[in-house]
Each structure stands twice: as C-alpha cells, then as structure tokens.
C-alpha cells in the first residue's frame, strides 16, 4: 500500500537530484514544478513510472527484513522476545542492522534498475518508452552485472545504521507506551 504514496515521491526526489540547474536559475524546478512537468508530459501515470519495479523490490524485501530481524534478534538474545529486550541491546541494534543489509542485497539490482527507469527522461538514461527490460539490457551491455551494484556499499552502510536505529526506536517506543 505504501508504494502508492512512495512511488511518486521517490520519482520527484530522483528528478530533483538529477537536475543540474541551481535554485534561483531559469531552469530550476522545485518539487511542485517537477510534479506539474511530469503530469503535463505523461499524466498521472508518469508519477508512477517504476511502480511495478518498486512493488517487486519492496514486498519480498520487507517480508525478509522483518523475518530476519526476529530470527537474528532471537539468536543474539536467546529466550528473550526481541520486543521484550531492554532498549539499546545488541539484539535490537545489530539484528536490525544485519536484517537491513541482508534484505537489501538481493533486491539492490532492482533498485538500480528502478532508479534508471524513473530517471529516464526522453530516453536519455535507457531506451525510452520501451520499458524496464530494454533498460536492463542496455545497463547490462554497458557494464555487465556490475551495472546493477553501483552504489551498493554506501547503501549497505546506510541500511545497517538506519535499520539498527529503526528497531531501537521501535522497541523503545513500545516500552514507553507500555507495550
């Protein structure tokens, strides 16, 4: 369900990051102007470019993420349910971080492909208008399998820190709310 909200935001974020014009210059587009441009050029469907790839990326990834968190946390704190562990224990932070890293690894190539498809304006990044398969083939021709792992190291570092902190925040909030 979150992909319906997330996908247009992700597309606009990506387009904002890729623009070369600086704020205040003639070619600069703020997020509202970028959204208007996409709507004008491609309609509502344009805001959902890459939607299917986002669903295919997120559904198995989140399922694996939560499953891994509980299994890793249980292994690090035997006999203690992850949510029952004291906030800040290694079970929560390390388990969350490892779960995030492991969940990202198999879906990372889909994320790179999704990004290229969303960035494809007038066929510049991929073979325009021919869909994700044409983009995948072009990427593979350009750099082989390495094309699908560009930027993986910083993504995994971010995943470990962010997901470790997320589960720490989640379990701490549960404790504060008396859950």
TrEMBL record:
<dbReference type="GO" id="GO:0022857">
    <property type="term" value="F:transmembrane transporter activity"/>
</dbReference>
<keyword id="KW-0472">Membrane</keyword>
<keyword id="KW-0813">Transport</keyword>
<keyword id="KW-0677">Repeat</keyword>
<protein>
    <recommendedName>
        <fullName>Mitochondrial carrier protein</fullName>
    </recommendedName>
</protein>
<dbReference type="InterPro" id="IPR023395">
    <property type="entry name" value="MCP_dom_sf"/>
</dbReference>
<dbReference type="InterPro" id="IPR050567">
    <property type="entry name" value="Mitochondrial_Carrier"/>
</dbReference>
<feature type="repeat" description="Solcar">
    <location>
        <begin position="1"/>
        <end position="75"/>
    </location>
</feature>
<dbReference type="GO" id="GO:0031966">
    <property type="term" value="C:mitochondrial membrane"/>
</dbReference>
<feature type="repeat" description="Solcar">
    <location>
        <begin position="87"/>
        <end position="176"/>
    </location>
</feature>
<keyword id="KW-0812">Transmembrane</keyword>
<dbReference type="InterPro" id="IPR018108">
    <property type="entry name" value="MCP_transmembrane"/>
</dbReference>
<keyword id="KW-0496">Mitochondrion</keyword>
<comment type="similarity">
    <text>Belongs to the mitochondrial carrier (TC 2.A.29) family.</text>
</comment>
<dbReference type="InterPro" id="IPR002067">
    <property type="entry name" value="MCP"/>
</dbReference>
<dbReference type="Pfam" id="PF00153">
    <property type="entry name" value="Mito_carr"/>
</dbReference>
<keyword id="KW-1133">Transmembrane helix</keyword>
């Amino acid at each position: 369900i979150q992909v319906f909200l997330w996908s247009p935001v992700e597309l606009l974020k990506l387009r904002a990051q890729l623009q070369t014009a600086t704020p205040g210059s003639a070619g600069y587009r703020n997020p509202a102007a970028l959204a208007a441009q996409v709507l004008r050029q491609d309609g509502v469907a344009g805001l959902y470019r890459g939607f299917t790839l986002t669903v295919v990326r997120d559904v198995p990834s989140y399922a694996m993420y939560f499953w891994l968190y509980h299994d890793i946390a249980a292994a690090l704190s035997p006999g203690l349910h992850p949510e029952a562990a004291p906030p800040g224990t290694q079970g929560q932070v390390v388990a969350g971080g490892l779960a995030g890293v492991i969940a990202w690894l198999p879906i990372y190539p889909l994320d790179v492909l999704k990004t290229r498809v969303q960035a494809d304006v007038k066929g510049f990044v991929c073979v325009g208008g021919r869909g994700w398969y044409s983009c995948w083939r072009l990427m593979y021709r350009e750099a082989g399998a390495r094309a699908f792992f560009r930027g993986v190291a910083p993504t995994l570092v971010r995943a470990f820190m962010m997901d470790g902190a997320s589960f720490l925040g989640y379990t701490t909030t549960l404790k504060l709310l008396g859950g």
